[in-house]
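Re: that chain you flagged

S.,

Sorry for the slow reply, it's been a week of failed gels. I finally had a moment to sit down with the sequence you sent. For the record, here it is as I used it:
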Amino acid sequence: MEFEDIYRKYFRDVYRFSLSLTQDRALTEEIVQDTFFRALKSLDKFDGSKDIRAWLFTTARNAYYSYCRAHKRALSQEDLPQDLADSVRIEERIEDEESAFAIHQFLHSMEQPYKEVFSLRVFGELPFEKIGRLFGKSANWARVTFYRAKVQIIEHMEAMDHERD
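Prediction finished late last night. Pasting the structure tokens below so you have them in one place:
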């Protein structure tokens, strides 16, 4: 994929993710610019084995942390992302009624514990620590399970988008 295509396709996602980190539009623009500059410099190192969006989000997060270190900005717990899985905002799709219904239909067909962990996290807004405790597992287990559920949903939604095109 050409860099211009990557930029066009993922700019909005990287911007939203960066804005969720910074809570400042001017700083977000700086972080996004730095993110795509870093991505351009290291595009040849990206092997394609991982989701490019996740790679860009990781790059954006690192750019933000570099900015904070350079400007000695104290990072509070609220500034830190829960994890990379939360960076892809499935909630935005849920706001659209048609997409929300499609997600709910797919959720209904998902296997446990993915269905329940995803629902508890997104709809119940429970932290991973509490979700893990509900299942007698760790917070890390809840994060991984949530991430896997989210990947299934994203793949399903992307397949539906391709069918419409």
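What I noticed first: The CA atoms of residues 17 and 128 lie 20 Å apart.

Talk soon,
D.
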